[in-house]
Amino acid sequence: MHRPALVTLGKITGIWGVHGWVRIYSYTRSKQDILTFSPWHLTRGGDHEQVRVLQGRLQGSRMVARLDGYTDREQSRSLVDMAIAVPRDVLPELTHEEYYWIQLQGLRVVTLNDEVLGTVDYLMETGANDVIVVQGDRERLIPYIPQVIRQVDLGAGLIRVDWDVDF
């Protein structure tokens, strides 16, 4: 069976209550946005399960969800540490010069002088701005701001940055 390309939006971090609800950690900009997608593709290693989201909500500072077929703690315990993914084609289309983080991972990063810094390993939020973590001859943390990120060319697999190789 062919599975569509999946994008990870979060993970199941624990169980909540006695009726099979799970705690989730959402990678989406707004925590609750993860609940707008259903079904979820739950993955861990070679394991894969598609499950429908019945309910979800913010519970204090945590997100919790009730999944179809999971009605008690012990059933839901098997889901802990599974990644929550959805098919790429169900994500909203972005406007010009907007990118999903997953699109940037693995891109080659070069300076304005064509010096290769490495490839994007992952991205992270810092509060002030997002940061790309570039792995090359060493790890570099480069702010994802217009003054630094000068060009993203998905077709060429390249990000051009205004950045000093010694920094």
Features:
167 residues; mainly beta; Elongation Factor Tu (Ef-tu), domain 3; SH3 type barrels; 2 domains; seven-stranded antiparallel beta sheet; six-stranded mixed beta sheet; 2 helices; elongated
CATH superfamily of the largest domain: RimM
Strand order of the largest sheet: 4-3-7-1-2-6-5
- The SS-based structural class is mainly beta
Strand percentage: over 45%
Count of discrete structural domains: 2
Main beta sheet: 7 strands, antiparallel
- In the CATH hierarchy, the architecture of the largest domain is Beta Barrel
CATH topology of the largest domain: Elongation Factor Tu (Ef-tu), domain 3
**Rg on CA atoms, Å:** 19 Å
- Roughly what is the average pLDDT, rounded to an integer? 91
Contiguous uncertain segments of 5+ residues = none
End-to-end Cα distance, whole Å, is 47 Å
Helix count equals: 2
Give the topology string: H per helix, E per strand: EEEEEEHEHEEEEEE
- How much helix is in the residues? under 10%
Describe it.
The chain is mostly beta strands. The protein folds into two domains: 85 residues, RimM (Elongation Factor Tu (Ef-tu), domain 3, Beta Barrel); 61 residues, SH3 type barrels (Roll). Helices cover 5% and strands 47% of the residues. A seven-stranded antiparallel β-sheet has the order 4-3-7-1-2-6-5. It has a six-stranded mixed β-sheet with strand order 11-10-9-8-13-12. β12 and β13 form a beta hairpin. The radius of gyration is 19 Å and the shape is elongated. The N and C termini lie far apart (47 Å).
